[in-house]
Specification:
This protein has about 300 residues and is of the alpha/beta class. Helix content is about 35%, strand content about 10%. The strands form 3 sheets. It has a 4-stranded mixed sheet with strand order 3-4-7-5, with helices on both faces. A two-stranded parallel sheet has the order 1-2. A two-stranded parallel ribbon has the order 6-8. The longest helix is centred in the N-terminal third of the chain and has 16 residues, at about 85-100.
């Protein structure tokens, strides 16, 4: 559900899950899925319009997963359109009820797991899923603990039936340090002859702040709010917009380069051969909203291990 550019599905594929169907409401995201995995069945539809009763192949699947839109607490809703994310959450829980999977995996904001303002939401989710025999476990994981060069904390819900729930445990950090921005982007920054690339890579010696996809309802292709842009500036990156290509030989070594869409995908740990469909803003938002595939793989392997027990 809410498959986007396929980051979560790609990671779960590496954990030996085969997708039955992928659902997203945005045409560019669906086209990205089809471009990269033509064997996957992508359906471009509002999640609320999906009728599992008409798709017997999805009933009682091993895993129902989704990277759901970032919800806000009821107390912080400032616009009527901000309630859209909560609508999708309700639809996702309803689909879990109707499909009856052995396991559920939802990814969202860390506050949904940790925040007191979401306590009633967690209670509602747990009691609703308990009615179909699913027990819930919540966890916040940082993608950097699983090799992603990005300080990206995500909130997770895994719900499973017994006896598999008792065999589930959350993945442990890999134990190795994630590569720095300079390490993963140095080659592309130097690819067009920029004389400042080596120095830039040496100074970009930390992992990236979290990529911010932004809202489809406002803004363009940039690296997020002021705080995010300042964090990128400490790594020598101009976050005010995205570049069309890496800096060339005529780019001053004193200036800060902009990230390209392709470089953002590297920060998100997509495979280099994964291509994105749409204009620059659409492609960047697909990347920024995605779940880093290595993180999805780690959680997926823990789920698969429990289901095989």
């Amino acid at each position: 559900m809410c498959a986007g550019a396929g980051g979560q599905a790609l990671g779960l594929e590496a954990a030996d899950f085969d997708p039955v169907v992928l659902i997203d409401s945005k045409s560019d995201a669906c086209s990205t899925l089809i471009r990269n995995r033509p064997q996957w069945q992508a359906i471009c539809i509002d999640l609320a319009e999906f009728q599992p009763d008409e798709r017997p192949d999805v009933m009682n699947v091993d895993l129902l997963s989704g990277g759901l839109p970032r919800v806000k607490s009821v107390a912080t809703l400032s616009r009527p359109e901000d309630a859209e994310e909560r609508r999708v959450l309700r639809v996702a829980i309803d689909l879990a009820w109707r499909i009856g999977p052995r396991a559920v995996l939802f990814e969202n904001v860390p506050e949904l797991v940790e925040g007191q303002e979401f306590e009633s939401d967690r209670y509602w989710i747990e009691t609703t899923l308990a009615q179909i025999g699913l027990r819930c476990s919540w966890k916040v994981l940082n993608a950097s603990d699983f090799g992603v060069p990005q300080n990206r904390r995500s909130g997770f819900l895994v719900a499973m039936r017994e006896p598999w729930f008792g065999a589930f445990s959350w993945p442990e950090p890999s134990g190795s340090q994630a590569p720095s921005v300079g390490q993963v982007l140095g080659p592309s920054m130097a690819s067009r002859g920029w004389s400042g690339a080596e120095t830039w890579a040496r100074n970009a010696d930390r992992i990236a702040p979290a990529l911010v996809g932004g809202s489809d309802r406002r803004g363009g292709a940039d690296l997020g709010p002021t705080g995010s842009k300042k964090a990128w500036a400490t790594l020598g990156v101009n976050g005010n917009s995205l570049g069309d290509e890496p800096p060339g030989a005529d780019f001053s070594p004193e200036e800060m380069p902009k990230l390209t869409v392709e470089q953002a995908a590297v920060i998100q740990s997509f495979p280099t051969q994964w291509t994105f469909v749409g204009g620059k803003t659409s492609r960047y938002r697909q990347i920024g909203h995605a779940m880093p595939p290595p993180l999805a793989t780690a959680v997926g392997r823990s789920i698969a291990k429990a289901l095989r027990s």
